[in-house]
Design brief:
binds 1,3,4-trihydroxy-5-OXO-cyclohexanecarboxylic acid; alpha/beta; single chain; about 150 residues; Rossmann fold
Amino acid sequence: MTTLLVLHGPNLNLLGTREPEIYGALTLADINQNLKEAASAHDMETYSIQSNHEGALIDALQEAATKADGVIFNPAGYTHTSVALRDTVAAIGIPVVEVHLSNVYAREEFRHKSLLSAVCAGKISGFGWISYKLALEALVEIIERE
Ligand code: DQA
């Protein structure tokens, strides 16, 4: 069965209480559950990992190269800083879609730059949890095309 990794970076474990006016009211568990249901409508399965640690995110991406067909990835704060995560995305050879709950371009300038976007299949930003759902739809198309 086609398997997707849903990978969440630092502080996303706090969704629901973290700046809800920016990130919405859903918890991470809600988002993961919604994605599981959306994936099953395409006969796909998801597994979800969240970490506040850059190395753990790198390990999850490397492991996904042998366990998954694609990745929905919200690198959170590491988006704007991490050469190491960019290198991993470039190395693993499966499509990765970068997602953000908030519209990063409507926020502080330091959020406008992503070190990862150029090595991702694409990027979706600004639609709350629906950003993840749109990323799933994109991956369905990309994987079916392959
Ligand atoms: C975020 C945007 C990032 O700039 C921020 O550091 C986050 C969340 C988003 O989903 O909107 O932690 O990735």
